[in-house]
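We were asked to recover a plausible sequence for a given structure. The inputs and outputs are reproduced exactly as logged, with field labels preserved.

PROBLEM: sequence recovery
POSITIONS: 187
GIVEN STRUCTURE:
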């Protein structure tokens, strides 16, 4: 049996339905009041994780004067500012490079990492060659493969170099994928 509203004469909706709608609206508003700030807070908290944590494009490594004039490769550490999710670290070791002076143009920069399996190469002055001690890959002084039977699929990875202020040697330090013939940067 329907109730009739005394003032309007229209039938009143059942109270159960009205209460259900009121409680449903209250639940939706309450959920929105909790979820929206939580989602915004989570986004703000996780924002640093979405930012790049790599090094800057070019890093100052040394000066021209520290490179031997005869072109002998010298290994230098690469120090750069690095950022993890929430902390910035200044001038931490991120890798190393071999630098050698050339008669013309910028110095040559070679990665110290063997492209085969990621071992660190050594420069042997008496042989004027780089050797990977893990699998005996030999590389010429300019980084080229010395032996076609080498386990390394490609030459040593060269890095881009800039000379700034006539004496500072800056290197674009990056890592490359291992075990493939193509030189592809690790992203």
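RECOVERED SEQUENCE:
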């Amino acid at each position: 049996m329907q109730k009739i509203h005394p003032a309007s004469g229209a039938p009143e909706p059942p109270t159960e339905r009205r209460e259900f709608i009121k409680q449903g609206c209250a639940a939706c508003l309450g959920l929105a009041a909790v979820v929206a700030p939580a989602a915004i807070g989570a986004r703000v908290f996780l924002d640093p994780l979405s930012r790049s944590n790599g090094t800057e494009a070019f890093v100052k490594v040394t000066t021209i004067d520290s490179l031997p004039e005869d072109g002998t490769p010298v290994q230098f550490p690469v120090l750069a500012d690095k950022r993890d999710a929430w902390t910035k670290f200044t001038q931490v070791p991120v890798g190393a490079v071999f630098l050698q002076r050339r008669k013309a143009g910028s110095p040559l920069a070679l990665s110290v990492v063997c492209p085969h399996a990621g071992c660190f190469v050594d420069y042997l002055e008496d042989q004027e060659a780089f050797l990977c001690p893990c699998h005996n890959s030999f590389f010429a002084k300019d980084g080229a493969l010395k032996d076609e039977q080498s386990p390394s699929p490609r030459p040593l990875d060269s890095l881009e170099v800039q000379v700034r202020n006539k004496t500072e040697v800056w290197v674009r330090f990056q890592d490359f994928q291992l075990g493939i013939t193509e030189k592809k940067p690790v992203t």
